[in-house]
Amino acid sequence: MIHNGNYSRVGTVDERTSDGATVWIILDHGLGRIAVTEGDRAALVLIE
User: Would you say which domain of life the source belongs to (predicted)?
Assistant: First the structure.
């Protein structure tokens, strides 16, 4: 995830709402689970 131009968190997408407006991410290193919603000032970046 990018926030304010910097990579701030790394994790794995766990779930998303049917409309795609909210994505739940399990953060690496045991940092928990967060929700990213449409309108948040964050960008999700796919890393393969």
Answer: Bacteria
One-letter amino acid identity for 35?
A
Q: Is the pTM of this model over 0.85?
A: no
Q: What pLDDT was estimated at residue 44? A: 82
Pick the closest to residue 37 from 16, 19, 21 (CA basis).
21
Q: For 15-32, write each residue's pLDDT tens digit.
A: 999 999 999 999 999 989
Residue with tokens 């994505």, as numbered in its chain: 23
What's the one-letter identity of residue 3? H
Cα angle 36, 39, 41; round to 5:
75
Please count the CA atoms within 13 angstroms of the CA of 16 that sit on its side-chain side. 10
